[in-house]
Amino acid sequence: MINRPALFIALNIILYFIALSLWGFEASLYVLIAITIFIIAYNFKYVGLKNSLSLSIVYLLVFDSAFFSFTSFKFRIWYPLLLIVMFLQIAEYLMRNDSKIKLKKNSVFIYSVVLLLLAYSFIYFIFETTEFKLHIIKYWLFSVGLIIVLFNSFKTFERNYVRLLDYLISIFVFVCIWGLIQFFF
User: Fold this and answer.
1) Where are the alpha helices (DSSP H) in the chain?
2) What is the dihedral of CA 92, 96, 102, 108, to 10 degrees?
3) CA-based angle 170:163:80, to the nearest 5?
4) Cα dihedral 103, 107, 111, 114 sign
């Protein structure tokens, strides 16, 4: 909820408190999914699908733990959303007329670091087990992809960065309040 951070904090606290009181810690996954869907639906009219998905990914990152993952490779809940946003950004890039790749002066450093990390990962591909190789692919795709997606999505908030900052602060305030509630109860 980009435009109402106080209401967003209250909604989180109330829903989590009710769910955890009635059904226990297992219910937190369902509350997390419900709030994520709410973030996407509510913010869609303000910032569009790609950016509302990015806002929900930021929310899910706060709860990024092994409890909210599935399969033996620990795929997190936000991975499918990230893949959708990556697909939307690639499609948007290909639809533009000026989609030629342009190198800037500061891009050379970024490309050098990426090439170094790719070389480092390639060494692991040669010597490590198959399971570890799949973990490398997963971390590359989702860690680097997350940085690129969030950077590109949040560029649209340049004119309205106060709302984005309010949203991020509201998430962190909720986590702090929830931590205090857990500590005292």
Assistant:
1) 5-23, 28-62, 78-95, 105-127, 130-139, 145-154, 161-184
2) -10
3) 70
4) negative
Contact 87, 152 (CB under 8 A): no
Helix or strand (DSSP H, E) at 70: strand 69-70
Number of domains in the chain: 1
Rg (CA), the chain: 19
The whole domain housing 91 covers: 5-184
Amino acid found at 30: Y
Phi-psi region at 85: left, alpha or beta (left = phi > 0; alpha = psi -120 to 50): alpha
Alpha carbons 76 and 167: distance in angstroms, whole number: 22
Tens-place pLDDT, residues 126-183: 666 666 666 666 776 777 777 777 777 777 777 777 777 888 888 888 888 878 877 7
